[in-house]
Design goal:
Helix content: over 70%
Number of helices: 4
Shape: elongated
Oligomer: single chain
Structural class: mainly alpha
Strand content: under 5%
Radius of gyration: 14 Å
Largest sheet: none
Length: about 110
């Protein structure tokens, strides 16, 4: 990955998580809402870190990213807590892959 596309991918990934977790929070039970509140705070920090690190400001998600969030939030509304936890695990796995790409490219 080139530095510019990598920086954008990192920032957008963190912003995606912030927006996704806010939407999932609406459909979460009390304990999961608390966890999502903490994750939102952490992901906002990550987004800020990468924007400062790369001197790049990204604020908008693409249409496809917003659609993806809508679909995942609908799944959470329909299937509840179990799906929320599956989504969270999937996002963490994806995040690890991205950070491994960063490691390999720097």
């Amino acid at each position: 990955m080139q530095s510019k596309s990598l920086s954008r991918q990192l920032i957008l990934g963190e912003l995606f998580d912030v927006h996704l977790y806010r939407q999932l929070r609406v459909h979460a039970a009390r304990d999961t809402r608390k966890m999502l509140d903490e994750l939102i705070r952490v992901e906002e920090g990550h987004a800020g870190f990468w924007q400062n690190f790369f001197h790049e400001t990204v604020t908008n998600l693409s249409f496809l990213q917003r659609l993806h969030i809508i679909i995942l939030a609908a799944a959470a509304r329909i299937f509840g807590e179990r799906v929320i936890h599956l989504i969270l695990e999937a996002r963490e796995i994806y995040g690890i892959r991205v950070y491994l790409d960063v490691w390999e490219n720097f």
